Amino acid sequence: MTDLPPIPFHRPSITPAEEAAVIDVMRSGWLTTGRHTVEFEAATAAAVGTKHAVAVNSATAALHLALEAIGIGPDDEVIVPTYTFAASGEVVRYLGGRPRLADVDAATFNLTAEMAEAQLTARTKAVMVVHFGGLLADMAPIVEFASRHGLAVIEDAAHALPCSRDGRAAGAWGTAGALSFYATKTVTTGEGGMLVTDDDRIADRARIMRLHGISRDAWKRYMTGGSWYYEIEDVGFKYNLTDLAAAIGQVQLQRAEAMREARERVASWYARATSAAGMDELLELPAAPGPADIHSWHLYPVRLRGANAAERRAATIDALTADGIGTSVHFIPLHLHPYYRRTYGYQRDDLPVAAAQYEREISLPIWPDMPQSDVERVVASLRRALRG
Ligand SMILES: Cc1ncc(COP(=O)(O)O)c(C=O)c1O
């Protein structure tokens, strides 16, 4: 145990500007979807470089709407990397489709074109890509593979704002992308998400389906000049974003690059501190971005080297917890979870790279305002735990 203050796994960076933005909305008399949401959409589309951005209340909603808009239905298959969060697979199930889980690259945890191709069947309609931790997956070969087989590409960019390669942002490579503004994400509104796309049809469909399937701009019903009249065009969802959240998002988006640079600095402190502590043979650090990459550094995933990593990983997390340090594990691959084992009969070694990486992974704290002294404390605690 320690008398030092705890180091959380994540702490959002909130300034007086976000606080003032929320107070303005609260005093405006209009709390839900409205002017701020529309402005936040425009700013996000400009930041990502897509024609459209459709604000919703989570990335899960954005993924669901994207798959719905491209017509995924029962018997359709979507290739999904197993190394991801529940959301990426469950949205396929919402529509009655089958997530066909794929293995990932050992260095980056990202899907590759080869791993995707290994899961291709006659029923495949789309491939989902997760930019793990905020490092862009190798998109050019994946897009080429998808277009060769007439598949849509859906980018789960929940970790990836800002993140780009050769100046092209995550979310702007595929048919549609989903951003997350969940509490721990690089740009946060507490809860929130955005569907980004160049496709007019997908954007139009998502705008209708995010609010009960009722006619476009239904959110204006109670605004001055809005109309009482609406038509239900389909059975939609309640996925709209509030202006309270959008106002926070507008400020966060303006600060996104500064917050990313701060995270990048924290990542560089980890690299320096672990190397100075002589931990190179104990720990594998996250894959370094290439010269054309902008890495969002949403996560700082390290992997234990050597034998019995799975048992040592549990003891290491316990030791860090005892020192007041928050950690996480990203991810327990989908194919290891009871639902996927039970429903599709997956075994550990069906997707062996993901299983082996998961067993030795620990995500260390990383957040924009994290001081260097906290990084040094985390590394010292890790060193004690690993050296025994
Ligand atoms: C890879 C990935 N996809 C999707 C999501 C879902 O995001 P949200 O909570 O905004 O629905 C998460 C959330 O952690 C995630 O890590």
Write up what this structure looks like:
The chain is α/β, with parallel strands linked by helices. It is built from 13 helices and 13 strands. The protein has two domains: about 15-255, Aspartate Aminotransferase, domain 2, CATH 3.40.640.10; about 255-385, Alpha-Beta Complex (Aspartate Aminotransferase, domain 1), CATH 3.90.1150.10. The protein has helices spanning about 15-30, 35-50, 60-70, 85-95, 115, 140-150, 200-210, 245-255, 255-275, 310-320, 340-345, 350-360, 370-385, and strands at about 50-55, 75-80, 100, 125-130, 150-155, 165, 170, 175-180, 195, 285, 295, 300-305, 360-365. A seven-stranded mixed β-sheet has the order 1-9-8-5-4-2-3, sandwiched between helices. The longest helix is centred in the C-terminal third of the chain and has 21 residues, at about 255-275. The mean pLDDT is about 95. It binds pyridoxal-5'-phosphate. Pyridoxal-5'-phosphate (PLP) binds near residues 58, 87, 130, 158 and 180.
